[in-house]
Amino acid sequence: MNKVLQLWRIATHPRELRMALSGLGVRLAGDDALGGLTDAETAALVRWAKEPVVDAFVEIGTLFGLTARTVAQLTGKRVVAVDNFCWNPFGLTSAQHEAFTRKILSGGGVELVRGDAEPFLASLSGRMDPSRALVFLDGSHAYADVKREIELCKAQCVGIVAGHDFGNPRFGVTRAVREVFGEPDEVVGMCWIKRAVR
Ligand SMILES: C[S@@+](CC[C@H](N)C(=O)[O-])C[C@H]1O[C@@H](n2cnc3c(N)ncnc32)[C@H](O)[C@@H]1O
Predict the structure, then answer these.
(1) Report field, pTM of the whole predicted structure over 0.85
(2) Which residues line ligand 1 (CB under 6 A)?
């Protein structure tokens, strides 16, 4: 199976792909979700995005857009996906990564923005009412970056802040979240959420 076909299977059969790729010699990031979310984490995110206070779901770090696409399909809410295309688990160039993600998201009702997390978050109020947004942080996982992103969300009065990799000892997410918020309201797998951020 060539790389394009492998990637297309991500778009169409993400669950199967986790198993199928294990035999392809691709060095994955060390988990079983290819840098994305598990089914339980995705279900939690969909449940959170369905909360009545949420008009828009913003995903910082969308990778191939699979989570954004699922949230859009299952919630009917506005979905904005942001990525600077600096990393993917297949060694695609940044341009290939962006082109592939745009193909996955085409016609799916997701707005894809190429860009860095921080300037996007700093200008969020120009795009939507931040108090009615759920911002899901899954781009950089470095402590200082995540802390700045959370603080930008607070400064913009984002209604709900969530993210991935809480409790993952490889990253600085847990420390950043606890320093700003204390304990999250809820953690599912490695997804965390803090509501009514003011
Ligand atoms: C772990 S993956 C995201 C997985 C995705 N949320 C999902 O559920 O499938 C991280 C993504 O964040 C992007 N990224 C990393 N740092 C970023 C930054 N500072 N701004 C925007 N995107 C970033 C990478 O290019 C990569 O696509």
Answers:
(1) yes
(2) 35-37, 59, 61-63, 66-67, 82-88, 116-117, 138-140
